[in-house]
């Protein structure tokens, strides 16, 4: 991924030498107390920055405050910036990640639905719509077979939607003596319990979380159905983004699918 150009550094008042940060698909850079990264979708960046900039401080979580360029815009030559926040992700603490997400979602509960969501056309947005039956199940044969028991067990869900963070597992940072920091927010308009379910599904599939993690959060509204939709979302997105169902990807998902379907009274595959 490219280094931030001099025009971008100047626009955000950067004088320090940028250093690439781990994660973020290799495109995130730290320069002094700023973090810079290329903008994926400008309407989303501007909306998210407006929301985060107006968010009151909380004892339950931190955010990375967005930074305006010299022009007053949140975007400069296709880049955005925020303040660096201390901490490291820890996927071995899934319950703490879910708790941070719950606190964050309570803080943004009353934020109106952003209109730009209807314009997103990436694998993640399509996977989300498929999971919630807003788009047809357009996937390859391997994914279709994986999804079959989940789709068969899907039932209507009557829950209010709000803006949520759709990728919390690796985007909550922990630092001693500080609240967890919620970063890299991809917004969706779904029930808050679905965002928790995505976290749980990710930790079960990829981060060796124990099956008991499901039970610890089963008090959340419509838990089994939002967990089912979280798996449909992730499997569909993976299929559309990569389409390559390697042995490790199949092995990561099959036991979790069986676990979730068994909770809904269905037989394992």
Structure report:
The chain is built from 9 helices and 11 strands. 37% of the residues are buried. It is of the alpha+beta class and 269 residues long. The longest helix has 19 residues, at 223-241. The chain has helices spanning 6-11, 42-54, 94-107, 123-131, 141-153, 192-206, 212-216, 223-241, 247-263, and strands at residues 19-20, 29-31, 34-38, 62-63, 66-67, 79-83, 88-89, 162-165, 172-174, 181-182, 187-190. The protein starts with 5 loop residues before the first helix and ends in a 6-residue tail after the last helix. The protein has 2 domains: 6-85, 2-Layer Sandwich (Phosphorylase Kinase, domain 1), CATH 3.30.200; 94-263, Aminoglycoside 3'-phosphotransferase, Chain: A, domain 2, CATH 3.90.1200. The model has no long low-confidence stretch (mean pLDDT 95). A 5-stranded antiparallel β-sheet has the order 1-2-3-6-5. Strands 4-10-9-7 form a 4-stranded mixed β-sheet, with helices on one face. A hairpin with an 8-residue loop joins strand 1 (19-20) and strand 2 (29-31).
**Strand element count:** 11
- SSE sequence, one letter per element: HEEEHEEEEHHHEEEEHHHH
The overall pLDDT average reads 95
Q: What percentage of the residues does DSSP assign to strands (E)?
A: 5-15%
Helix percent reads 40-55%
The rough form would be described as: globular
**What is the CATH-assigned architecture of the largest domain?**
Alpha-Beta Complex
What value does the Rg take, in angstroms?
Answer: 19 Å
Q: Write down the CATH class of the largest domain.
A: Alpha Beta
> Might you state the CATH topology name of the largest domain?
Aminoglycoside 3'-phosphotransferase, Chain: A, domain 2
Largest sheet: 5 strands, antiparallel
Strand adjacency order, main sheet: 1-2-3-6-5
Structural class: alpha+beta
Write down the domain tally. 2
The termini sit apart by: 41 Å
Low-confidence stretches: none
The total of helices stands at: 9
């Amino acid at each position: 991924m490219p280094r931030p150009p001099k025009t971008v550094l100047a626009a955000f008042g950067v004088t320090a030498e940028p250093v690439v940060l781990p994660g973020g698909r290799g495109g995130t850079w730290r320069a002094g107390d700023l973090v810079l990264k290329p903008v994926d979708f400008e309407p989303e960046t501007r909306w998210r920055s407006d929301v985060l900039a107006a968010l009151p401080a909380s004892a339950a979580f931190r955010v990375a405050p967005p930074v305006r360029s010299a022009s007053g815009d949140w975007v400069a030559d296709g880049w955005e910036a925020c303040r660096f926040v201390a901490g490291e992700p820890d996927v071995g603490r899934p319950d703490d990640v879910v708790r941070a997400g719950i606190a964050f979602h309570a803080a943004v509960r009353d934020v109106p639905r952003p209109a730009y969501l209807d314009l997103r056309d990436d694998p993640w947005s399509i996977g989300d719509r498929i999971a919630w039956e807003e788009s047809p199940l357009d996937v390859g044969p391997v994914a279709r077979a994986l999804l079959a028991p989940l789709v068969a067990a899907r039932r209507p869900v009557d829950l209010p939607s709000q803006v949520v963070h759709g990728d919390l597992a690796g985007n909550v940072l922990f630092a001693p003596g500080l609240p967890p920091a919620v970063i890299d927010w991809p917004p969706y308009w779904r029930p808050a319990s679905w965002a928790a379910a995505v976290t749980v599904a990710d930790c079960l599939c990829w981060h060796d979380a124990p099956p008991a993690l499901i039970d610890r959060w089963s008090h959340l509204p419509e838990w089994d159905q939002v967990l089912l939709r979280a798996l449909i979302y992730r499997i569909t997105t993976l299929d559309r983004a990569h389409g390559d169902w390697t042995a490790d990807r199949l092995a990561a998902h099959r036991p979790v699918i069986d676990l979730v379907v068994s909770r809904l009274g269905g037989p394992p595959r």
